[in-house]
Records
---
Amino acid sequence: MQRNAQEYEVQTIFDEQQDHYQLLYVGWRGNKRDFGCILHLDIIGFLYVILLLFL
């Protein structure tokens, strides 16, 4: 499904104490709320774990 940019926005979540970071899309698909993870980043010591989710 292709998303209309006017109906969706990008939001960030920062948990600096646990070093977890996310980039999300949120919006509406018809009359239902829709959201999902675009990028998830965990910092573990000097090791960076990046999960990219392609929609």
---
Amino acid sequence: MFNLITFFCAILPILIYICYTDIRYRKIYNIVLVVLLVITIINSFYFSIIPNWKGALIIFLVGLALFYLGGIGAGDIKLLAVLSLSVPENHIIDFILLISFCGLPLIAIVLFCYYVLKMKNKTIPYGVAINTGYFLLYFMLH
């Protein structure tokens, strides 16, 4: 339990900041992701948890292809890859499904704002759904 509390105390402010910048500016900054990566790796080695390198690499490569097709932002892909390092290999699909379910209301809100409220920005701050799905999965596992 100490592992979970320590890890979340370290990453919670970072993930909140990522949500803020993604909503406000539609950006997830690389330096913030590097800090998150370092904390994730330190946590893994300190508590003898093997990082899910394979899952992170697969998510990054598939995400990269989606980025070049225009389907997702590069910051979202990098955030997914970094967070997936701490997701057990047998729960990667659960992680992706939770993110998808968390993204549905977000998509509805953005479309409502675009079509009904006539706001100009139609992009979706998917970092919010990624972080929410990550928290839900992590709390379900622990």
